[in-house]
Protein: Bifunctional protein FolD
Organism: Limosilactobacillus panis DSM 6035
Amino acid sequence: MATIIDGKQLAKELNKQTQKRAQELIAKGVKPGIAVVLVGDDPASQIYTRNKHRLAERMGLKSDLYRFPTDVKQATVLAAIKKLNNDDDIDAIIVQEPLPNHLDAVAITNTIRPDKDVDGLHPQNLGKLFADQPGNYPVACTPRGIMTALRHYNVDLTGANVVIVGRSILVGKPLLALLNNANATVTMAGRHTKDLHRLTRQADVLIVATGIAHFIGQDAVKDGAVVIDVGMDRLPSGKLTGDVDFDAVEPVASKITPVPGGVGPMTIASLMAQTVDLAEWRRNG
Ligand SMILES: Nc1nc(=O)c2c([nH]1)NC[C@@H]1CN(c3ccc(C(=O)N[C@@H](CCC(=O)O)C(=O)O)cc3)C=[N+]21
């Protein structure tokens, strides 16, 4: 029987603190603002966009959505970002991933002002993270939320064997840096990894971000492992599920995140916290 890592509850506590910090800023005449650029109709992005907008409004933050059709031109997206870069009411800019193939995602990312880059995707922010530089800079919200959850549930990372399955710039790569900076021994795996299950069975902490429903079953998990599921997948029935077969893995894990109610709410709570951080940092350094 594993301890369930209750991301929903933990997010609630974090959101309370963020709301308090936001209210203090608002009292000083600064209303933290977030702008979301959404292209097309990716289902995970739609869940994310809806939930974060709802929470931002509840916290009294400014939350703007810029929605474009799938066939939008590169120049239109770049112009929207440049306008947001110069808008003093906007502290945080998100460009939802995935972007359609005809858009140049690298050029788009590089256009976002680093001090408004709430996803921590700009090479300047990623570079600081990989160099473990001190100081204030944004870090991708899902990795930030996962680190908060691991800390809260007293998962000892020093010397731990951590295996990350999934190498995306939004989840896997920043997690690699954060965990490495926390003295874990990190292995990055992906679809090309040979004998993947033999590798995942060695993990003290297994983090899965593949986007493939129930990719990890009981045979892929070591007894007593901590299992973090970043997946946000739909079963043919339409039900929301994760990359981990929760019912099969929960009996062998020591701690495990559910989907929904695990990493997702922590991502959104981290996004709100980091939006307030950016509002403070941009004004006070
Ligand atoms: N630039 C960028 N940054 C992202 O962080 C990003 C992105 N693009 N594109 C899409 C994915 C997906 N994502 C989610 C975050 C939270 C939930 C979430 O709140 N999940 C709830 C779902 C509850 C419900 O069903 O509404 C839960 O897990 O409990 C979902 C999805 C962030 N992403």
Observations:
- Residues 29-113 form a domain with the Rossmann fold fold (CATH 3.40.50.10860).
- The radius of gyration is 19 Å.
- Residues 44-45, 47-48, 51, 94-97, 119, 141-142, 170, 232, 240, 259-261, 264-265, 267-268 surround 5,10-Methenyltetrahydrofolate (CB under 6 Å).
